[in-house]
Amino acid sequence: MPQVENIDSLRDRSGNVKSYRPVDGLAYLFIDFNAYFAGVEQHDYPELRGRPVIVSPLKSEHTSAIAASYEARPFGIRRGTKISEARELCPDIAVMPARHDRYVQVHKLLMAEIERHLPLEKVYSVDEAAFRLSRSEREKEKAIRTAEAVKRGLAENVGPALRSSIGLAPSRLLAKLAAERVKPDGLTVLELQDLPHSLANMPLTDIPGVGSGVAARLARSGITDFTALWNIEPKRARAIWGSVQGERFWYQLHGFEVDEPPTKKSMIGHSRVLSREHEAPNEARIVARALLLKAASRLRHYHMFASSLSLSIRLRPDGGWAKARRFSHSQDSYLFLKSLDDMWGEFLAYRRKELAAGRLGGVTVYLHGLSKAGDASVEQFDLFEEPELKHGDGRRAALWRAIDQINADPDSKFRRLGNIRDNILPPAHRHVMLASQAGLDLNYLGAKIAFSRVPEEAEFLY
Ligand SMILES: [Mg+2]
């Protein structure tokens, strides 16, 4: 068990002692459904079982598979393989258009079945979730029996086509890493005594919480493999990450339980798979901005403020880039857009070489650090704000709220203009938007990703 440092290092900025508690035994079961979208297709269409199946996000040969069944993989077909290429590699392949509503429906059935065995701790995405074992279930043999009962229950009560990999470990992060070890249909136990050696060959960027930016900073500190990462001190992790997230990561990695922050709604955001016409960086940026404007409108609808923005970009055929920016609590879409554009600039600079081919697979934007007006955290934050900025921010937020109202109910506002309304503004144009965003309707912008919550690397740390 690692040494807990001086208690002062465990206090947050308000002086509260943070709770990192050492965990005894296998406290978490993490489940990851294998090739989930393809699995649901095989579940619904028994004739597809045992056959190569891919799921396409759109009805187009130019898009890439968003899931590939394990039977498709010996052909060299995986998530990200172009549909037309998959047909060449395996002429017999079944190409199924995505049915995200159905994937969410089946997700609910799966969660309900597992909840007959264990309480749900957290849903990470439509095909990943963590469950909590009671104190009496955490011993290895018992935990394995519980996991086997979960697998049996899923096969018998939902369906055998939906296979999963389960990890059992002292923390959610370790349980997730354990689940990754054996696919498909794995059941892997990871105890503290197995570490670091049993993960020694795991690439650092495979670990949730180690994005490309953190990996680069780790490399600059001479940390290039799991064992070296394991051996750093929590303080050092904090310094390398540049935030308390590093310390949280360290504790989860070493099997400590890390309390979730108490916010009910912790983030608001949207995600899109990019169709061909939006996969060039400039087009993708407009999509990201539209997603952000939509998230910001929801933020104001909930009377909330956000203090950071994250942007993640998936590249084709694989890889990705993610970044987050902090700012004073705000509702101002202009501030958010500026922050997004800054990050987009960094992305372009950082990935200039890869972007020569210029193909982006998807974009996700999230507003984080949410709080309501009147929350202590907002008031605290105000102390650090420059008065001019605060004033301007408030006025701009009011402007955006007015725009939200018009967009939500165009008729009520334009009614005041009397009957000239119909002459000057046909219904489809009674929307207020930024000129740069004109002509982009998110409802027609390719497939939504069927994540009830999009898996965010950072989520594993809270
Ligand atoms: Mg999966």
The number of domains: 3
Shape: globular
Round the mean pLDDT to the nearest integer and report it: 81
Distance between the termini: 21 Å
Sketch the topology as an H/E string, one letter per element. Answer: EEHEEHEHEEHEHEHHHHEEHEEHEEHHHH
CATH architecture descriptor name of the largest domain: 2-Layer Sandwich
| CATH 4th-level superfamily of the largest domain | DNA polymerase, Y-family, little finger domain
- Give the biggest beta sheet: 5 strands, mixed
Evaluate the radius of gyration. Answer: 24 Å
Helical coverage, percent range: 25-40%
**How large is the share of residues in beta strands?**
15-25%
CATH class of the largest domain reads Alpha Beta
Number of helices, counting only DSSP H or I runs of 4 residues or more: 15
Number of strands: 15
Structural class: alpha+beta
Hetero groups in this structure are:
magnesium ion
Strand order of the largest sheet: 6-7-2-8-9
Low-confidence stretches: 1-12, 374-391, 413-423, 444-462
CATH fold assignment of the largest domain: Dna Ligase, domain 1
